[in-house]
Structures are given as structure tokens and as C-alpha cells.
Amino acid sequence: MPPRPPGRPPLDRATVLAAAVQLADAEGVDAISMRHLADALDVVPMALYKHVGGKDDLLDGMVEAVLREIPGQAREGDWKAQVRAAILAARRAIGEHPWARRAIETRTVRSPAVLAHMECLVQHFLRGGLSVDLTHHVMHALGNRIWGFSPELFPEGSPAPDGARRTTASPDPGDYPGILAISADARARRPGASACDEDYEFTFALDLMLDAVERLHTAGWSSGPTRL
Amino acid sequence: MPPRPPGRPPLDRATVLAAAVQLADAEGVDAISMRHLADALDVVPMALYKHVGGKDDLLDGMVEAVLREIPGQAREGDWKAQVRAAILAARRAIGEHPWARRAIETRTVRSPAVLAHMECLVQHFLRGGLSVDLTHHVMHALGNRIWGFSPELFPEGSPAPDGARRTTASPDPGDYPGILAISADARARRPGASACDEDYEFTFALDLMLDAVERLHTAGWSSGPTRL
DNA sequence: ACCTGAACACCGTTCAAGT
DNA sequence: ACCTGAACACCGTTCAAGT
Asked: Where DNA binds (residue ranges) (chains A, B) (predicted)?
């Protein structure tokens, strides 16, 4: 039999990563294993190791591939508008690949595309006149919000327990009147929709943050105490 | 031979969870496997399934055990002080178990101790006079910060690459002057220390957030547009 | 009740070999 | 160069059995 089925060109890193992204899109990150991916590529698992350092490198490469889809933004408006635009661009790119959220949170970042996005934001702040020090703190303050997502606080449907069998008894909603009030209110406010408008929550938090930074900056912020 | 070594009382859930927490403290979360944990308890893996629903339930239980260490706080000061105190208490509890950060981010939360902490914060806000709606948005705005940590932006040592073999070339620091400036500045500012004072970054972000919320609240905030 | 043994269907990764 | 086979040391979880 032929060394590779006739029509199949040899693998390369880009092909492997693209297939992995597609597989994760279709079946979720948990479906990403060297063996499963190899199957999808019609290849033996070990063939992948020629193109990808191992599973960690594969995942980094997948995040990399997604982040490379972030388009460049026009340099218009003040630093706040530019930061906002860059973050929302990242949000759109990542939104296509829901698994990428967790992957970014999990991975020990600093691949080129990751650094490029952070560098882009840092430069918006610095060009806007923020001090290096303030910029540093603000990057931390934004946290994962720089990627266009906030951590999921109420993972799909507030306090109601799901089907997962667990030894601990499922919680009694009556024990959490505050949380209950919040989700009832949110549901009442948007009849027929899911309890939580993720886009709204995200921009609310982002704008809150950016406004607070602007206030600090224009007030001539300089490194302060604020210790634990 | 005896059914169990003489001195050993039968396992129960609390014992299993405590052993798991201890194992994770000592060897990291990656060391947590049913088999490894069973070894540590001198028991066959399947024995654990009598006390713990499975690996997911084990991890939820571990987080639960850590969060139960959060002490109750005195109800003094305004809502801002109370929220701050509750969050810093969570921070201290989780700080003892570094693996718990990632576990909380990863887990699909809503176990009783998780809900209890959120409920506590929600009630501080509501008792402080914030609307249910504002409280909801603010909980999202705080995000994982409610647990006393912010996501790691620069995972130990900024743009320098680590030893992990990867196919992609390690990034050139010259490509990221902004990030470089930030970490150089941070290092210069705290000679001899690590580039980043995590406590400072955390409180900076937390206070920025709480101040912004207070400003919104006293300005009579009511649900606004802020769409994407 | 609580624990065990053997088994199933998976993992990531190595090494030496094939073409 | 690029891919394969066989093997190693792991996983979580099931089921039927032991005491």
C-alpha cells in the first residue's frame, strides 16, 4: 500500500492546528486528545509529534490560531476607545470558539499572539499618556477581560442544580434568597430570554473599569498604598 | 489477613476530601487522580467511589472543603467595607491552597459553600441599598475577584519563555516594548522582589471596582443601554 | 456496610523501525 | 523526511465478587 493515501498531502503544523480547532469546535475541548485528533487526520498518534511538541504545545497552538483571527483595528478615538475596540475584537474572535475561553484561562500563556494582544493594549494606554506603572496595574485590573470574556459566575441557570450525580445534597434555593432575587429579577427584566445577557454584563464591567481608570488618570494618579 | 489493617477506621467522605486536599497541597492538583489518592489512603481505587461520586464530585468537594475554612466576618462598616472584608477572607482561605484557584475557575461551581459566599456578597450589596439589578451586574463585574484572586496575566516572569519545548520559536522581547517597559518598571520599583506584587494588584483592582460601583450607586444608577 | 480484583476503554509519550 | 508498531506507564469507571 502507498506510504500515504494518494490524495493526501503530508501534514504540517498549520493543518494539524486547523484540524484541532475544528475538532474542538465540533466536539468540545474534552474531545482533544492526541489519539482522537490523529484519528480525525487519518494518521497514527505518533505522526502528530513531528508537527507539534506535545499536547501542551498543541493547545497553545490552538489558542494561537484563534487569536490570529483578531483583525487589526483602526487607530481612531482616544485610548479608551482604542482599548475598547481591541478587546471587543478579541471577544468576537474568541466567541467563534467557545472552548478557547477555558483554554486561555488554563494555558500558561505568553505565546506570540497572546503577547501581541497584550502589547497592543499596553501601547494604547501608554500612547494615551498613562504612566507605565498605572498601565501595569490596569492590565491586572482588567484581567481576563482583556480577552473579551468575564469568568462565568453563574454557569447556565443560577442556583438550580443539574443532573450530575453528586454525594452532597443539591442546595436549597431558599438558603440563597439574594442570589434568587438576582436571577428572578434578571429573568423578569428580559422575558423569554436566558437569565443573563452576557454581552451586557461584559460591557458593563469593561466600561466600569475603563471609566474608573480614566478618572484615576485625569486625577493625576501616582502609585499609592492600598495594601492588604 | 484482616479486612482492614487493625488501626485503620473505615473511610468516610470527610477523610477522603481531607486527604485529597492534603495531597493537592503537597503535590499539586495534577497529582489528584482516583488511583493516586487511593494509594495515599492505602486503599484500592474503587473504595473511593463509596464516599465520593467520582472525580468531578471529588474536586467539587475539595473546593468545598477549602471554602468552608472562610471565617464569618463581623458586620461592621458600610457595604463596601463588608464586601471587601468577605472577599479578603476568601482570599486568605484560598491562599493556603494555591491549586484551589484553578479548581474554582475550572469547576462548574454552585456547591453550597460557593453559593454561600456569593449569597453573602449579594446580601452586603442589597442591605447597602443597591438595587437588585445593580447588584447582579456588579457581581459579574467583580467576577472571579469575589474569590480573592485575579487571573494570572503574566504567569511568573513576564515575557521570558520557560524551558518547555515548543515548536514555535520563543518570542523576541524586542517585539513587545510596552510589556517590557511594564515589567522593567515594576522590577525597578521593588528591587529584589518578584516583578509583581500580587496583593497590591489584587487590592488595586478590587478597590477600583468597588469605588466605581459606589459612584454609580450614589449617582442613582438605573439599568442603562451599554450594548455591544 | 465496606472494600477488592479483574476488566474495559481510554490517555500521553518513548523508542526503534519502516518507506 | 515523514510516518508506523509495539510498548510503557498511566487514567476513570463498570461490575461482580469477597468479608
From this structure: 33-52
B143 contacts in chain A (CB < 8 Å)? 143-145, 150-151, 153, 205
Number of structural domains (chain A) is 2
- B27 and B82 co-located in one domain: no
Alpha-helical (H) ranges within chain A are 13-27, 34-40, 55-67, 79-95, 99-106, 112-127, 132-142, 177-189, 198-218
| Cβ-defined contacts of B124-132 (< 8 Å, 24+) | B124/B79, B124/B82, B124/B83, B124/B86, B125/B79, B125/B83, B126/A178, B126/A181, B127/B79, B128/B78, B128/B79, B128/B80, B128/B82, B128/B217, B129/B79, B129/B217, B130/B79, B130/B213, B130/B217, B131/B221, B131/B222, B132/A181, B132/A182, B132/A185
Q: Do B138 and B49 share a structural domain? A: no
pLDDT digits (tens, 9 = 90+) for A144-188: 999 999 887 876 643 433 334 445 556 788 899 999 999 899 989
Residue B172 counted as domain residue: no
pLDDT digits (tens, 9 = 90+) for B113-154: 999 999 999 999 999 999 999 999 999 999 999 999 988 787
| Same domain membership, residue B124 and residue B89 | yes
Does one domain contain both B31 and B81? Answer: no
Task: Please indicate, yes or no, if residue B224 is contained in any of the structural domains.
Answer: no
CATH code for the domain in which residue A94 is found: 1.10.357.10
CA/C1' separation B186–D8 (Å): 46
Q: What is the pLDDT of residues B151-187, one digit of tens each?
A: 878 766 434 334 344 455 567 888 999 999 998 999 8
Q: A148 and A198 share a domain?
A: yes
User: B159 CA to chain A: closest CA distance, Å?
Assistant: 6
Cα→Cα distances B61→B39, B113, B198, Å: 19, 10, 27
The predicted structure's pLDDT at residue A170: 67
A36-46 pLDDT, tens digit per residue, is 999 999 999 99
B1–chain A nearest CA distance, Å: 31
Distance B167 CA to D2 C1' (A): 16
Residue B226 has pLDDT above 80, yes or no: no
Look at the pTM and tell me if it is higher than 0.85. yes
Residue B7 has a pLDDT of 53
For residue B18, the domain's CATH number is 1.10.10.60
* Range of the structural domain that residue B92 is part of: 72-153+178-219
**From residues 129-188 of A, which are strand C contacts by CB within 7 A?**
none
Cα A131 from Cα A128, distance rounded (Å): 9
> What does the pLDDT read at residue B115?
94
